[in-house]
Amino acid sequence: MKRPLAYITAGWLGGDSENAEQAARYCRAVYEAGFSPICPTLYLPLFLNDAVPEEHKSGIDMSRDLLRRSHVLVVCGHTMTEAMKNDIAVAQRLGITATTLEGILTVKGQGRR
Asked: What is the pLDDT of residues 42-79, one digit of tens each?
């Protein structure tokens, strides 16, 4: 079964390892809901240095390209950052559905307790 691509965005406020752990949990939940999660936060820090302006811009460009290829934007967490607002605006401009993680899980019948 081909899984639709789901771009994961969240308010990444912790350190790299904390962000990676949280991102992995979000990705697992989205995967279990039947999607193929895409989460640049999990892998871009492995080879890009965000403190180098050119690499920071490259990371933004690569993330935007991945968002463009996605079928849905999944907004995770309870904190809204400027980066998340930008992801939502890009998705809206491109006609990509944006929803919350809770929305995905409820639709798939996994959010009910």
From this structure: 999 999 998 999 999 999 999 999 999 999 999 999 88
Cβ-based neighbours of 37, under 8 Å, separated by 6 or more: 6, 8, 26, 27, 30, 31, 74
Q: Is 113 a residue whose pLDDT tops 50?
A: no
Strand partners, 8: 74
Q: Which CATH number fits domain 5-107: 3.40.109.10, 3.40.50.2000, 3.40.50.450, 3.20.20.80?
A: 3.40.50.450
User: What is the DSSP track for 30-96?
Assistant: HHHTT-EEE-HHHHGGGT--TTSHHHHHHHHHHHHHHHHH-SEEEEESS---HHHHHHHHHHHHHT-
CA angle 94, 13, 81 (to 5 degrees): 35
- Enumerate the domain spans of the chain: 5-107
